[in-house]
Amino acid sequence: MKNLFRNAGADIPASIVVFLVALPLCLGVAVASDAAPVTGIVAGIIGGIVIGALSGSQLSVSGPAAGLTAIVAGAIGKLDSYSVFLLSVVLAGGLQLLFGFLKAGMIGEFIPNAVIKGMLAAIGLILILKQLPHFVGYDADPEGDETFIQPDNQNTFSELLNAFNYISAGAIIIALIATAILLVYETKTIKQQRIFQLIPGPLIVVAAGIGVNQLFLQSFPQFALSGDHLVKLDVFDKPTDFVAALPSPSFAGITNAQVWITAITLAIVASLETLLSIEAVDKIDPQKRISPTNRELKAQGVGNIVSGMLGGLPVTSVIVRSSANVSAGAKSKLSSIMHGILLMLSVLFFADYLNLIPKASLAAILIFTGYKLAKIKLFTEHYRKGWDQFLPFIITVIAILLSDLLIGILIGMVVGMYFVLRSNFKSAIFFIKDEHRYLIRFRKEVSFLNKALMKGILESIPDGTSVLVDATKSDFIDRDIIDMVNDFIINAETRGIKVYIKFSNSASKSFFHDNKMVID
């Protein structure tokens, strides 16, 4: 417990920032999922407190995820009731717990670095593009909407253009003031002041937004914001009313096949999104700590069991909240736990005050977070690394922008794996010519995937030359490659080609055809 509070000076201010980011997102994801707003808040509380306490990640923040909204909305529509859907959430948590014990977390290790960086950049751009309408006062879509095609049949770009037909002068003024405060907080002078290290910039932004809007209400009503322009949190007279509003899972649906299909779908998608988020958070962790992925799956499993039992939406590790946590200077998991506690306190005691927050202020915070994730420097760095790094990176960015997180990542992984395999093809076999002599050197592992490359090399060797096949550095040579070399050796004498073989061990000698010269 003592170690948990060791970095409280950094974690508690960071938790306030994450809370301010998470609050509208929890509500937005619930609305986009066709569920009651309180279910999103419950999921956020569980993601913060329960998963935060059990997770091995120091900076990841969990909660209801935009990537699951389509699955959740579809499942709620197909099942008999929301209570039956909650049973799917509980079962999905149990499956995730099983995944953790089966050590399925290793899947995250196979995602290329360029794809992870592309995902971070894409999330940053999505935050900017999706929050710009809220920045100018167009609040028709929920904050949790991150997919390209939106519920109103608009897409990211058409919605952005449409927003400029509904500009609110008051929202723009508040958003610009918020942006100015955040920019000032980034200056070296402010960063050196101890007082400003304890009071996070986003908290000042929210307070200023409330204050300016109250001024508008009193003196400039034409600029005042109300209704959809403000946070909408359910107000409960007392804590028992909040508890009474929470639905419970219906175990009567345990024999319903659709319940199990939904549970399996949620478990797989939520686990993939979590592993992607954990991998990405580790990349931006200033201390470069490595999170135990199997422990994370277990924590997520427990979190979803608890969330389903208490009436909440399914949860995953969420990169938006996690990146805001890193950006706010969090050092440990205390920040995630405290953000969950703040969500709980807010819905129990402070809903009236939180409903005064203009969405334009929160939009400025999220746009600023997005800018930090998608800086131009990130794009130029990958361009300088070469096409094998830049193409997986930029294709992942574009694919996520034009679809959603999981589809975009899958496309990026296909492209990334192509370049990995292409690199392995080239590095597995070294080929060089010196006048009438040729060298073919097999490196560490030569698999059947190198057949096309090997065939091209052997076909390029002219008659009347000599060839040295060096296998001393190879730990493994696929049988298909050996057969191809043996066929070449058999035909070499008729073409006047002399073939020499160097072996790494005596066992390798038996693999190749006898009609060659051995060099020990």
From TrEMBL:
Keyword vocabulary terms for this entry: Membrane, Transmembrane, Transmembrane helix
Keyword Transmembrane belongs to the record: yes
Transmembrane parts of this sequence: 12-32, 38-54, 82-102, 114-132, 163-185, 197-217, 259-281, 302-320, 340-369, 390-421
UniProt keyword Transmembrane helix, yes or no: yes
Ranges for domain SLC26A/SulP transporter: 10-380
Subcellular location: Membrane
Bilayer disposition of the protein: Multi-pass membrane protein
Domain of life the protein comes from: Bacteria
GO biological process, one term: transmembrane transport
One Gene Ontology cellular component annotation held by this UniProt entry: membrane
Family matches, as InterPro entries: SLC26A/SulP_dom (IPR011547), SLC26A/SulP_fam (IPR001902)
Protein name stated in the entry: SulP family inorganic anion transporter
